[in-house]
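Incident log, structure service

09:12 report received: a user says their structure output differs between two submissions of the same chain.
09:20 pulled the input from the user's history:
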Amino acid sequence: MSEFDILVGKLLEQKPELTRDGIEEQIKHKKEKIGAGYLTDQGALFLIASDFGISLSGPLKVEMSLKDLYAGAKEISLETRVLNVSPAKQFSRKDGSPFYLRTMTVYDTNSTASVKLWDDKANLPGIENLKPGDLIKIIKAYVKSDLNGSPTINIGSGSNIEITDNKSEIPTIDKITKDISELQEGQKDLVITGVIDGVVSSMEFTNSRGQPGKALRMRLKGKDGNAMRAVLWGKDESSIPNMISQGAKVRLLGINIKNGNQGLEIHGNDSTIIEIEGGKEAQPIIARILSMETTDNGKKMILCVDNKKNIYNIIDYSSSTSICKEGDVIECMPSKVYGNSVTLDNNSFVRKLENDESIPSLAKIRTKINEVKVDGNYCIEAIILKIPERREIQTKSGESVLLSEMFVEDDTGQIWVKGWRNQARLIDKCGLGEIISITGVNAKAGLEGRIELSLTAFSKITKKN
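09:34 re-ran on a clean worker, output below:
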């Protein structure tokens, strides 16, 4: 008799009003509710027994899979592979005494699970050296539900983790890596790959509990050419190289896919592992200045282009470019280069060079409206066909933001130009019938498949005589 049949028999003994057919029907409903791929018949049986207030006990197999896990299981042992490991964090109990907690994500052939290592186990010898794909054995752990109801493996005082060199059918990290083009909403604990598309930036914020937070933002492009926004919560620039070239390959380990304001988004956390092609030292950039603007806090926002028509967004915190003007060719040694995002600080230098005709001028990199494609950065020249309109938009979070928009055309087509928040002021200064030059505008997919242009912090609008 199988272990499953033994457990069914135990449930029928304690609930004689049930039938085997009825139990199997409840198992079917339980698996449909939880979702395909997350629960075995045996795991569903434990959940059903729990619904009746019955605790089933039975010898679980050492070679059990992650989807056999259920809340309340004790002294479970299994083999699995490491997906990622977070740093250990210190917290305080109600009585003020400290404790440590480290989280880890593991996977096997069919599923993934979160692992929590408590107190001394958070700093097990060698835990810092665990790498993605390492095969480990979890010994005598217990299982609890997390806030979302998912079973979480807990490593306490009587539990342990061992690295093993056994042969395993659990796939390696390379075999579970997905290209961005394959992603779907709701997927979790993924390993994904793509290439840098545009800006990599960091941000600081205050969360709903009034605590400071940080995040890294980037756009990644897949094999199909489509780009996706990625937000890695709890990460900052210390997690990535100082020099990241445009088009650099990226792999993120331990991310979830969610639906955001502009379609699918990649979300990570402080456990996410970031692998980016790059170097510790930035390389010099030679480029022509297309536009320069100074912000209210004194930093300069500069748009440049190099001899390969790559456009760079330069932020100058050090006034290194105070000797320069629009149209100058410069050589700069930045402190950081993230894709097309360049940072100049007190450790950077800038010098003016003789004019280099191989580096295009603004007039030579302007794009006609009918050549604009989604996710590209452009400079255009057009005439305003409608009086610019300004309104307030309510976001999903309840925030009210300003939006100004205008309808423009050149001799090839027509398009909407939008400015959000601070960029709305640029459009407010424009009028019907004026011919304008816009530098540093980003193309996005709008309603009904139309392409729209959005102003960025580096955009500049110049009126033509």
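09:41 both user submissions now match this output. Likely a transient worker issue. Closing.
09:42 reviewer note: The first helix runs from residue 3 to 14. DSSP finds six helices and 28 strands in the chain.
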